[in-house]
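LOG
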Amino acid sequence: MKIIVSLVVALCLAACSVVGRSEVEIAPYQVLKADSSQGIEVRRYEPMVLVSTSMAGDGRNNAFRKLFRYISGDNAGSNNIAMTAPVLMAGEPANEGTKIAMTAPVFMSGANSEPRMAFVMPKHFTLDSTPKPTNPDLLVEEVRDYTVAAIRFSGTLSQRNVQRYSQQLQQWITANGLTAVSEPVAAGYNGPLTLPMLRRNEILIEITQ
């Protein structure tokens, strides 16, 4: 079982505070079943657009930087924007890309033997409206019918914690008559200033019922 874990996920949401409060949009989902005794939920996510890049070769920090540059304007700026008045012209027009708000969680997985990191786009983006990356290393894709079992825990996304909670989640999936159809995915929600005991971390495994 390949599980990709990186402390860089702690850098993903700089808008978070030391007390765990996040100011960013969270990918929306519906809870289908909850086991509060183990902190496990079965969820169905709404359709979402992911922008991802490989963590192989250049490493996890470089993968994060590529994605962060993308949402900071390193994209084709393909959004349609309604014209307003007046039109101001001063010298040559700037060719700036579209700035995109960061959302949570940041996904990391090692499916298909290639470790990847993905940012979830804000919910109003579709596959067609998402700005095209200028970096060829980035992949834009839409995810639909994404049903997962998710286990939530605090602390850090250390290798030990990810292995522990992945095993616990897989055992729960089997015991509840469900079938896992993906490798575990680590999801981080908080920034580096958040106290470990107040952080929200999750392991997601796609399932069929």
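LOG (cont.) second protein
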Amino acid sequence: MKRQVFKNLLLSVSFLLSSCASAPFYANECRRYLEAGDYQRAIQRGKEAIDAYAKNTEPYLCVSTAYLQMGHLEKAIDILKEAERQAPSYEDLALIYNKLGFLYHLKGDLDLALTYHQKHLLVSRELSDTKGESTALANMADIYESKGDYTKALFYYNKSVEISTDPTDITFAYTNMARIYQKKGENEKALENYLKAYTYAKKTNDRKFIAVSLINVGDAYRLVKDFKSASEYLISGLELAKQEKDKKLQAYAYARLGFLYRDKGDRRTAKEFLKRAYDMYISLNDKSGAKSTLSELKKLEGR
């Protein structure tokens, strides 16, 4: 009898170890299929990993991303809600809360999105995870901006910047604050924050990121009527975008140069730059960029 019990115990342990070992394999397979754009197989492998070991958070995240890529937002949320119930640690919950906040924001449920980012904030503080805390604060700011509560949005972006050590995150925060000040019509403060964003963008050594900041600063100078500085920054941003062979960024720069010459009263040059931006957006099949640029061209032509 004892021998049979011992044998059954060995079989149970063997099965458990086999299941746990297969979970990372299936999770890795899920990631590979996800990166290859084969979302159906990613979901299949991810679910096999979940069946093998339900406490492993990684395959839930993988399956959720695959569902999202396929346009199944509700399924992406549902699988993460299951992950939330199974999560074995605060570290896992932090990942899940962050992703659920993003998904509910995408869905347009701003209150639930805010709730999950607040949960992420609390868990990050419990873990003494400064990076996670900064991310949660920035995400909360983003929600408040979407709600139109600019005072709270600026408050939380500033809180995020105060504790962040990541130049990329700080650049995004200052850029977002600048955008809010522009919405409020406070162009001097917008310029101040775009300049701060540019300072931190340079620390990332990401040339495309730096180019975006240069263009943003140039456009901000345009709005405060410092056309000389605007031209210098916009041209620098355009040249960097050309060096990086980033056509979308070049189109963005051409459009802003068009606005600059429009504001200077040089309609002919403004139309030339806007036409370049429009043609580039068309070549990229960027319908949104092409539509907004065409609208500005029509205004210049009096149509």
